[in-house]
Amino acid sequence: xxxxxxxxxxxxxxxxxxxxxxxxxxxxxxxxxxxxxxxxxxxxxxxxxxxxxxxxxxxxxxxxxxxxxxxxxxxxxxxxxxxxxxxxxxxxxxxxxxxxxxxxxxxxxxxxxxxxxxxxxxxxxxxxxxxxxxxx
Length: 136
Hints:
By secondary structure, the protein is an alpha/beta fold. It is built from 7 helices and 5 strands. Helix 1 (about 5-15) crosses helix 2 (about 20-35), helix 1 (about 5-15) runs parallel beside helix 3 (about 40-50) and helix 5 packs across helix 6 (about 100-110).
């Protein structure tokens, strides 16, 4: 089982978020028991923004058994396909949102996505298996 991990989960854990940190850490532990964890370049870039330098980022990431998984051409084109559908249905954003890329990577290259979804992934990626941390 390959679980793609979304940025919000990593930031919850690395920042010890008072609301979501514990639940996100537990969800990561549960996913590790079932297989591999991966992040794509979008999640890596977004996560890196909360660290002051690369060494601190590398040290944080090394605490997890997480691998880097680049997006394939298939994933990139799938993100574009879903983006076009979003725009054709009246979506207002003019530029592709990173979440489209993260979800396409998870859909095409992984078995599921670990994220705190607010309905976006379910609305636009109905075939994506989504794992959400259980709060409280």
